[in-house]
Amino acid sequence: MEFIGEFLGVFLELPIDSNFTYKVIVEDCETIIPHEIFRLALLLPAAICTLLLAFTSTRINVKTGLLNGRPGLIFPMDVLKRSHRFSYAAAFGTLARLCADIVFNSKYAFTYTGPTYLKVFIALISMLIYGMGYFPLFAGITASSPLGYFVATMFTWCFAAEFFANSFCRQNFDYSYVILILWVLPELLCYLYLSISLPARFVLSIVRPRKKSKLAVDFESSDDLYESIRKSYQGFHVTKLFKKPPPPTPPAEGLKDKILSLLKSLSQKIFYKRKQGFRYSARMISVMAVGFILLYEVTFYLFMLLFQYFQYLEEGIIVQLIAIGIDFQPGEPESITILRDGLNLSYYFVIAFRGCFLTSLLIAFAINAVFLLHYMTSYRNNLLSLYKGQAQHLTARTEKSNASLVVGSMRYAGYQVGYIGWGFFIQFLLLLIFSMTIATVVTLWGYLEDFIIAQIMVLWPVALTSLVLNFAQLLLSKFLFLQEHGNILSMDNRRLFFVVTYFMFFYNIFIGIFSCLMRILKSIVLGALFLPRLDHSTLPRKFQQLDPGFDAYCGFMHVESTHTNPVAMVFISILQAESLTSLKRNKINDINVLPFDEKQEMLARRKRKAIWKWSLAYTLVNNPEISLQRRLVLAKERNENVKEIFLSHSAPFPEAVPPPKFALNDAYMQEEKL
């Protein structure tokens, strides 16, 4: 900030006496806990806590017999689940300022003064250090165990202490600490939420320990597994599919009800419309939280900074005007008069540009904040469409490999935060250029009036002619060249149509020049407007795969829909619940079985096996596609020729000879006879 203060001092250093002191009181205070020392000192405790959490997990595939399968591989966040959403969002919210420093300041975890070409590797090492420092916090939340909550609580309090010490240090601000609290309010709320909720969960996990479920759905606290499936988000979604959709809302009758209904529909279109029963994923909530906090804190900081700098500029000009005299004095030197006119013009520019800077900043923030809500709505609509097998807006899965989809899913979160930051900055610059142009024209209207009017007199016939010709072509097409006033695409008066088309060729060349300029302007505006939104590509349909942001979003959505489909999750959970219930039942039967009942138990086992085989046969005969898929899987296991099996089943059943069907009751009767 020192160079800005020096620049303002040089700008206001006029050749007259003045008592004005060039002091800009917006400066960083002395850091109590240095950033680099804190990040490096956190590595050893983070590594120890990560190792402790790893011993609470067991390995699944690699050397499970060694040390009873411990330590296992732990992960910081299950990106495919919807549990602990707000805890993850708050934890990522505490990273917002660090993300802002990475995006805008390229902040590293340690000081580097070596060659420039090695800075890329220093940045990679810094990202690894940042990730390792926050790893125990996320891994503790994911573990959902007493040790996990304890580790997460300790690291939360550690980060909170560093945040409070460096954010509320004593400095020479000329505004109160209330403004400082408002600046860091979202981050402060995230720290408060984690500092209170995590210790509470730690106590509850000790007082009322809960056994982890092995179900695919988001488990609810219930002793009945099937009831847990019904209460889960996926179970609610599947239950809703079997219900009859509610009737449409009747239209409003009274004037008051119509106005309220119109306002409600407008607010839902502009801002957000809630869909009952839908639950956003933990990663989506976390990304939106980081994006909003990043926008809020950067906007607040720039607003206070710009407001104060323009205030000092205004005060400096006023002091100079008072020193030389605000009003014209008879007999004063011509240099003083020229200086006074320059100061007055500078004063008007400072007032105008202050409004331009602050207004552009607030509008850019409002646009991106509303876009975050629109982005969540778009995510919900696209995900529900993918659940139904529809992907019109996204790149089809057949056009991309599975590996590229997974890579896009991994890139998505980081890309989204970076695009939000740079999109906000570019929108602010474009709005600033536009508003400053208008402010300059208004301020210098007395000097530019004749020039602007002359240009308007030259250009208005072009714009008017373009509008008239376009409107005339539309009217002729609808009422003269199409049948039934344009309701059907069938030509009428063809000879006249050919004549008009011939002459319009020359006119449209003239109109095309103006249309091309409008196309360029629209591309710039819409490209800058939708730059932060990864759900809309800034490239044409055939070139969307060249858009890295949209490509990452498509990969994220396809991976999300494939692994979180509620119907599939409920079906898998029912199978898991059936398996767990049968295992529990068998354990009870094994305890109560007597030696002389072994023969009866063997017969019961054979009976169950026969029932399963007949049920499998019934399912495969009535579902040829499933039968084909099963044969392909078995062929791969037996190393058979898969191509021959596929070709032998490629032809559908003839219509005259339908596939045979078995009745399940007949299968049971046949089994009883056996």
What does this structure look like?
With 674 residues, the protein is mostly helical. 70% of the residues lie in helices and 0% in strands. It is built from 23 helices and no strands. It has helices spanning 2-11, 35-41, 43-54, 85-93, 96-105, 119-143, 146-167, 177-183, 185-207, 225-231, 233-242, 255-270, 282-324, 334-387, 402-443, 445-479, 494-529, 548-564, 566-592, 598-622, 624-638, 642-648, 664-673. Helix 13 (282-324) runs antiparallel to helix 14 and helix 13 runs parallel beside helix 15. The chain is globular, with a radius of gyration of 35 Å. 20% of the residues are buried. The model is unreliable at 1-27, 649-665 and 667-674 (pLDDT under 50). It is a multi-pass membrane protein. The chain crosses the membrane at residues 37-55, 86-104, 116-135, 147-165, 177-204, 284-307, 347-373, 419-445, 451-476, 496-521.
SSE topology:
Layout: H1 2-11, H2 35-41, H3 43-54, H4 85-93, H5 96-105, H6 119-143, H7 146-167, H8 177-183, H9 185-207, H10 225-231, H11 233-242, H12 255-270, H13 282-324, H14 334-387, H15 402-443, H16 445-479, H17 494-529, H18 548-564, H19 566-592, H20 598-622, H21 624-638, H22 642-648, H23 664-673
Helix pairs in contact: 3-6, 4-9, 4-13, 5-13, 5-15, 6-7, 7-9, 10-11, 11-19, 13-14, 13-15, 14-15, 14-18, 15-18, 20-21, 20-23
